[in-house]
Design goal:
By secondary structure, the chain is α+β, with helices and mostly antiparallel strands. Helix content is about 20%, strand content about 30%. It has a six-stranded mixed beta sheet. α1 crosses α2 and α4 crosses α5. The radius of gyration is 18 Å and the shape is globular. It starts with a strand and ends in a 14-residue tail after the last helix.
């Protein structure tokens, strides 16, 4: 994008990113630990989200911000994992002071990955705690993409079921414009197809019957318009926008909403009843920044992060990765 430069996600100050995963079970989690309680917002556009504590982000709620966000596999079963983040923060005396203790404010969203690997193994509090330790100990892990953390169990292009689906993954992308930095972290686990946001070319998604090229999910759905089959419901793309811009909780909610344009540019179809698409936004710094500019950048970096996550994904558990097809 003209007027900006690409930067590593780790150059955005104010957070630490860590991962933990089970490769054999094909599930995992990724945690964003805030250096201080940070104003945050969220926008849920899909019809089937699995989330924890998102009402905290309503501008009418009393909370001023969050201490952490957890992205995990396991569908609703994975919501137990946030307890590990709570434990980690409590041990370090981090949280909202309620007099007798401090209560960490942690939001979480989960992807459905029960059909890949093992359905009986899900991220738990122990795995999430390990992700927190990873965030503290190894900055380099924050630069990993594809089959890492919550991206371990991600798949895409699932309209015709798992037989013709492909591997998704975790993606990151960040830009700097002047002193303002905006980045995205996303777990790409969509029912729809994935498109390059700059060329419009399909790069992953619903495979053809020979499994050597693509079909267009939107076109297949139109063919079935009179009798849509039972949608393969193992979906949900979840992500986080990070910025060093200074914003209120209400403004962060607007940034999260605008960032969904990045999903719309890179995933088609998106926001269906079979998806639980959710985006969080964290204001981590004090840079003066225009809300509309940051929201516009948020949409771009989110779309690029979706592309990066899918292109970095490796073939696994019978699901073909884009790098092995393109």
């Amino acid at each position: 994008m003209n007027g900006t430069k690409e930067i590593p996600i780790t150059e955005i100050e104010g957070f630490r990113l860590g991962h933990a995963w089970d490769q054999e079970a094909a599930t995992g989690c990724s945690v964003i630990l805030c250096d201080h309680c940070s104003p945050a917002g969220a926008a849920v556009r899909g019809g089937g989200p699995a989330s924890r504590e998102t009402p905290l982000l309503d501008p009418l709620a009393a909370s001023l911000g969050l201490h952490a966000i957890l992205l995990s596999g396991g569908s609703a079963f994975g919501l137990d994992a946030a307890g590990g983040v709570m434990k980690y923060l409590e041990e370090r005396d981090i949280g909202f002071d309620v007099g007798v203790t401090k209560v960490p404010l942690v939001c979480q969203s989960c992807v459905f990955d029960l059909v890949i690997g093992r359905k009986d193994v899900r991220p738990d509090s122990e795995m999430a705690y390990k992700a927190c330790l990873d965030a503290d100990s190894c900055k380099d892990s924050a630069l990993l993409q594809g089959n890492v953390g919550v991206g371990m169990g991600c798949t895409v292009g699932k309209y015709k079921g798992p037989e013709y689906a492909m591997k998704g993954g975790l993606g990151t992308f960040a830009l700097q414009a002047g002193n303002v930095k905006v980045g995205a972290i996303v777990a790409v686990n969509a029912m729809g197809d994935i498109y390059n946001i700059e060329t419009g070319r399909q790069i992953a998604g619903l495979l053809n019957k020979e499994k050597n090229g693509f079909r267009c999910t939107e076109e297949e759905m139109v063919k079935d318009a009179a009798a849509i089959p039972d949608l393969f419901t193992g979906n949900t793309t979840i992500g986080v926008i990070l910025t060093n811009g200074a914003f209120t909780k209400a403004q962060a909610n607007k940034i999260a909403a605008m960032a969904h344009n990045g999903y719309a540019r890179s995933i088609r179809p998106v926001h269906t009843t079979a998806d639980g698409d959710t985006i969080y936004a964290l204001s981590l710094g004090k840079e003066k920044a225009d809300l509309n500019v940051v929201g516009t950048l948020a949409a771009y970096v989110m779309g690029m992060a979706v592309n990066r996550g899918v292109l970095a994904a490796q073939s696994a558990h019978g699901y073909l990765g884009a790098k092995d097809l393109l």
